[in-house]
Amino acid sequence: MHLEHLADGMDLPDTADGLSIEGLTADSRKVQPGFLFAAFKGSTVDGVQFVPKAVEARAVAVLCATNAAEAVRALVPPTVAVLSADEPRLTFSKMAARFYGRQPDTIVAVTGTAGKTSVAHFVRQIFQAAGHPAASLGTLGIIKPDGESYGGLTTPDPVQLQKDLADLATEGIRYAALEASSHGLDQYRLDGVRLTAAAFTNLGRDHMDYHPTIEDYLQAKLRLFSELLPAGGHVVVDPGEKYTDRVLAIAEERGLPVFTVGETGKDLKLTGLRPSGAGQLLTVETSRGEYKVTLPLIGRFQVSNALIAAGLAITAGIDAGAALRALENLKGAPGRLELAGTTPAGGMVFVDYAHKPDALDKALAALKPFAEGSLSVVVGAGGDRDPGKRPLMGEAAARHADLVIVTDDNPRSEDPATIRKAVLAGAPGGLEIGDRAEAIAEGIRRLKSGDILCVAGKGHETGQIVGDTVIPFSDHDSVRQALNQLGLK
Ligand SMILES: CC(=O)N[C@H]1[C@@H](OP(=O)(O)OP(=O)(O)OC[C@H]2O[C@@H](n3ccc(=O)[nH]c3=O)[C@H](O)[C@@H]2O)O[C@H](CO)[C@@H](O)[C@@H]1O[C@H](C)C(=O)N[C@@H](C)C(=O)N[C@H](CCC(=O)O)C(=O)O
Ligand SMILES: Nc1ncnc2c1ncn2[C@@H]1O[C@H](COP(=O)(O)OP(=O)(O)OP(=O)(O)O)[C@@H](O)[C@H]1O
Ligand SMILES: N[C@H](CCC[C@H](N)C(=O)O)C(=O)O
Ligand SMILES: [Mg+2]
């Protein structure tokens, strides 16, 4: 693609004349001949220092911040085109969108502290049920009709994301749902994605290692509504959740159509909710009348997630009746309040991805009514992540569970015992078992009839990160092994 087209609207140096760009990357290690290299100041290093490496690998153009342009020009031969922008990550994302070109016609995005993966997973299923081949992109990677691929980040870097979207469009997938993480929004990874609708689930404490304040964290999330969603794009929220007033204020200011769900919502108004076996019976009032829906999932928060997902699908053009009927067959996202095993005595073991205080609070509150006996939890907190959440997670665990077993969850570069101590500060009577498999086994050994154990924090993960090493580990496998060891199935 010609650089003039890729850099549409930018001031270009003479060296850009007729220059063809073969690909683009912000990582010097991925530069190939004919590439544009984007040199960004990152959270650990300044990409400008890798410009010589990029040129050595035969990059023909460099994009950088306006205030770094002079330094970059001094590092490159005169034939290399240097482009600059005040917000280079934003420019880069738009370039990636132009380079890859195609995207599914209908893309909806969801942000919020908890529920993104679940909502994206549900929206994909609703699109599918309505007869449209669909994909979801997020923490679980890409899930589409003919397979799954795991990527690592919830919101991939813009080059990967645009390539993924173009591949999906080429495969004939016209509907997609994606998770917008606060890191992704803050780093402009999603700018350039053509959105139809966007939803906000909720906001709680998370990523305080990255965002200096809750307000900064909220501001990153609000970009989805103030900057990414185009005019005419629908905003979907459950107004019962804190901070939705901030989302609605943006919608009002921009004149964006709003679709509200839940008890205080207007478009899908929840007028009745009661448990029904291992699911919940919802009464939903719509402009087309009342619907009774049996949601085959437990947990109050799944009701909110399901209605938000239906709202996204409906605003994207799916018939309201079809969307609500599809909720009756929803499958929960793997590792989200998932029943992982049952002892013959009737003790149940759930695996859940709660790794922040609010999520743990909600997950345990959801399980509590099903525990005829005691509720116990195996929980830890990640290393190199917000230390402030550790005692709060201990507190949330102790508030609901009769027994709290504190264990390790991706200690990364930190001392695991120090992390456990911080969690135990919030759950003083807790039992400390560092080895996660042993903690799970002990939790299972103690289960009696009618008891429930929640293994929290890792959900779908398949590794325990210790130092720089990822040791293969799965909560599901550990549960299975512990049940087998007891001679149980
Ligand atoms: C803190 C953070 O988000 N970092 C992300 C960010 O890196 P950065 O720009 O800060 O990187 P840096 O290491 O300082 O490097 C600066 C620049 O130099 C470049 N570089 C670096 C080394 C080199 O040899 N050559 C080179 O060109 C880098 O590619 C980068 O462009 O941009 C990179 C490219 O997009 C990401 O891979 C990287 O994610 C790191 C690996 C990460 O762990 N991110 C997590 C925290 C994250 O993004 N999580 C969210 C939220 C998950 C949730 O929902 O909870 C997610 O969306 O997954
Ligand atoms: N709407 C919700 N409100 C509160 N907690 C929730 C909600 N939805 C899910 N949870 C809890 O949060 C955990 C993670 O859910 P999910 O993966 O859907 O969220 P996420 O926003 O994608 O999280 P992450 O940012 O970690 O990828 C679940 O296992 C559950 O414990
Ligand atoms: N995307 C989140 C996932 C955390 C999962 C939990 N198991 C942990 O390691 O803290 C993060 O990287 O902070
Ligand atoms: Mg997620």
Please provide a brief summary of the model.
With 489 residues, the protein is α/β, with parallel strands linked by helices. Helix content is 34%, strand content 23%.
Task: Describe the model.
The chain has 489 residues and is α/β, with parallel strands linked by helices. The protein has three domains: 3-98, Udp-n-acetylmuramoylalanyl-d-glutamate--2,6- Diaminopimelate Ligase, Chain: A, domain 1 (3-Layer(aba) Sandwich); 101-329, Mur-like, catalytic domain (UDP-N-acetylmuramoyl-L-alanine:D-glutamate ligase, 3-Layer(aba) Sandwich), CATH 3.40.1190.10; 338-488, Protein-Tyrosine Phosphatase, Chain A (Alpha-Beta Complex). It has helices spanning 3-6, 51-56, 69-75, 88-100, 116-129, 158-170, 182-186, 214-228, 244-254, 300-315, 320-326, 357-367, 389-400, 416-426, 436-445, 475-485, and strands at 23-25, 35-38, 61-65, 81-85, 106-111, 134-138, 141-144, 147-149, 175-179, 197-200, 234-237, 258-262, 268-276, 279-286, 289-295, 338-342, 348-352, 375-379, 403-406, 431-432, 452-456, 463-466, 469-472. The strands form four sheets. It has an eleven-stranded mixed beta sheet, with helices on both faces. Strands 16-17-21-18-19-20 form a six-stranded mixed beta sheet, with helices on both faces. Helix 5 (116-129) packs across helix 10 and helix 12 packs parallel to helix 13 (389-400). It is globular and about 75 Å long. The chain starts with a helix and ends with a helix. Residues 355, 382, 385, 409-410, 457-458, 461 line the site of 2,6-diaminopimelic acid.
